[in-house]
Structures are given as C-alpha cells and as structure tokens.
Protein: UDP-N-acetylglucosamine 1-carboxyvinyltransferase
Amino acid sequence: MEKLMVTGGRPLRGTVQISGAKNSAIALIPAAILSETTVTLDNLPVLSDVAIYSELLEELNAPVIWQGDQMIIDPSALRSKPMPNGNVKKLRASYYLMGALLGRFGEATIGLPGGCNFEPRPIDQHIKGFEALGARVSTENGSLHIQAKELRGAKIYLDVVSVGATINIMLAASRAKGVTLIENAAKEPEIIDVATLLNSMGARIKGAGTETIRIEGVDSMHGCRHSIIPDRIQAGTYMILAAATRGDVVVDNVIPKHLEAITAKLQEMGVEIQEMDESIRVIGKPEYESVDVTALVYPGFATDLQSPMTSLLTQTKGTSILSDYVYSNRFKHVPELTRMGAKIKVEGRSAVIEGGQLSAAKVKATDLRAGAALVIAALTVPDGVTEITGVEYIDRGYDHLVSNLSSLGAEVWREQD
Ligand SMILES: CC(=O)N[C@H]1[C@@H](OP(=O)(O)OP(=O)(O)OC[C@H]2O[C@@H](n3ccc(=O)[nH]c3=O)[C@H](O)[C@@H]2O)O[C@H](CO)[C@@H](O)[C@@H]1O
Ligand SMILES: C=C(OP(=O)(O)O)C(=O)O
Structure:
C-alpha cells in the first residue's frame, strides 16, 4: 500500500486539465453492454474504478480496448453470468450491471456493491424500479437475483432522489416494452450524459436533467461514439485547493454551469473567480469570510464536495456551518482533520467549523472525498510533512493527482507505507 506525503505552505499556481467525469464513466461503461455493436467512449478518466469496470466487462465476454482517454467496448458476444463476488465488491457503481444486464438479457445475479461506505447506502429505490418494470428480485447468498419474463414500461415515483436508481431504471427501461416514466428523478449532469449515450445507441429518452424522465423502450440498440462530460467534482476540488492555498489556478476543460454552486460559495467567502467558456480561474485571498453551506441534490451544492469544503472552511476567520442533506453522516474526514488541529464539532447532519491554522500529522483517508479533504488540508499547513494513508480511495476519483499537483507547484509524492 502507498501513502501520500505532502509538504504544504505553497500557493498553487498554473493550469490544471480536468478529465472526464468518474460518475459518468462508470455508468457509461455498463450502459454500453445494452448495445449489440461496438461503443467508443472518449475523454475517459484514468482511474481505478474505470480499470475495475473494464475487467467486469471482460468477465462478461465483452472485450475492452483502453488506450489513454479512449475505451472501445465490443459487446457483440456478451454473455450473462452470475457475478456474486470479486470485482463487483470493489466499486459502488457495479450496481449498474443490474439494470444493464436486466435490459439486455432479462436477468442479472450481482453481489451487493462495494466502494466508499461512509454510511449505509441502500439500493431499495433501484429494486423498486426493477420490480415496477416487472422483474422479480430475490436475495441469494448476499447477491441480488433479478429476473423478468418481459420488462414492461411503468410509472415509477422515486421516494428518494437517487442518482444511481435514476440511471439504473433508465438502463433497464431502455429495453422494456412500452413507456416508462421516472418521477422525482435525479437531475445531475451525469444523468444527462448517460441519456445522451443511450439515445446515440438508439434509445428514446426525453427529459433527462428534469424531474420527469420518459423512456420509450426499443427492441435493439447499436454502437456509437460518445465523449464524456468533464468531472465537476474533480474541478470543484481543484477550485477549493486554489482558494485554500491562496493560489491562482485556471481549472480547464470544465462546464462552468455545472460548477455554479461551488463558484457562488467561493465568491461569498471572498475568493475571486473569473469564468471563461470552458475554464474557471480561481484567485485566492489572504483572508476569507466564514459561510454556511448545505449539500443538496443537483443543482445544489454537491455532497461530494462537502468533505473538501470542510478543509477550506478551516481557513476562514470565523465559524461556518456545513450541513449535508444528501448523506446525514458523511463526516469521516472530521476526526482526521481534528488530528491536524482543526476545530470541528459534528452536530447531527452538520459540522460546525471554527477557522484556524492546521498542522502536519499522520492521517488516514477512509473514503474518496475524505481523502481529498486531507490533501487540501495538508497543502495549507505552513511547515512539516503530512502523511496520508488510504491513497487507494483517493485514486478512485482523481486522475493523475500527484503530477497535477506537482505541476501547480505543490510538494507531493508517494511512498510505500
Ligand atoms: C457512482 C456515483 O454516481 N456515485 C454518486 C451517486 O451515488 P449514489 O447513486 O449511490 O447516490 P444516490 O443519489 O442514490 O443517494 C442519494 C441519497 O439517497 C439515498 N438512497 C439512494 C438509493 C436508494 O435506493 N435508497 C436511498 O435511500 C442514499 O442513502 C442517499 O442518502 O450520487 C451521490 C449523491 O450525489 C454521490 O455522492 C456519489 O458520488
Ligand atoms: C461517493 C463517491 O463515489 P461512489 O458512489 O462511487 O462511492 C464519490 O464520488 O464521492
């Protein structure tokens, strides 16, 4: 296992290129198996989750050619098979194989997903959706067995706004007979990206990005070429890094509209932001106002930026309150930041953060964004080396992290733990 070593105290300066979105990529790769011919994905991020997903497709007899930021998937000889263990347990988004295999073969047996378990993450709304489409769902030795004689379109109201359930139902419903309506659907940009790919493959989906999505099922789907949207969470993390280190960074290859919530919060704190067509320049200041932040579903402030934002809020001159209304208990980064001298109290679904200088320490990333929070905190520390273990979590979501940070002037390196 590796650890990340960080010497802080330097303002980050320069330009960073943002890769394609992880949360799109790991839905688009399984979506490709609904096609009977080759699908090419461009602007793919180089991440461990993507590597695991390509192995999952190989296990299903869909060869994958992955070179740089391009992946070519050939699902023409795809075979359905039970996948109770192994790679499905290594990532959260393996649950998309449920919807994709159900759509393609009318059945799927998949182990319950792994990934970042910062709190219980139920999938009852996915199951509700599959059942509404006519599938029978049972649990066998820790795996879900989902089977339908025939998938039929249905009206499905999600009790919770869920990104995963919205996408999983879109995948299965694309191959159902008749029309499916998903009400109270999630509106994240990644959902539009998946719908765009599916439509290029021959699906008939309207309304993605709104709370009602209409899917008219089709009998067959075909290959296409699709370019993945930029990763708004990675971009937001670099924006926070620029502000936290009082740097001056151009975050390039982004869709500024996807970053409105973080941009507005940074401006409220006193960070200078310049927005261009496909990039955002973030200019840090010596002092910041404290602010209150609430993580909500899109277009609200992203829960995936909540932990990184916690670290930035330690750099203000007052007390900030950061609440998460998507995950009630996503605060595993807080005890680690406290080791670095942060004054944070968790009260219910909120963290109360008092500004103050942090110091170097040995800390542990327990999930992806908690890891990002620790990197940000470490880069603000004026002297000493911070050691961050659990780098494998950070590698799930940040393409070329060390080389990107180094090119911005940070002193960061990996060592064997
Ligand atoms: C691979 C991927 O895209 N991951 C993202 C996705 O996760 P994921 O799709 O798993 O998250 P959801 O949007 O489903 O979860 C949102 C909320 O709904 C609850 N819920 C969800 C499904 C369900 O069946 N029942 C239920 O109660 C969850 O516990 C959570 O409180 O959206 C999250 C919320 O933006 C992000 O943090 C993750 O980075
Ligand atoms: C929680 C995250 O991802 P996943 O849902 O894949 O665990 C994330 O990207 O912050």
Notes: The mean pLDDT is 97. Residues 226 and 381 are 41 Å apart (CA to CA).
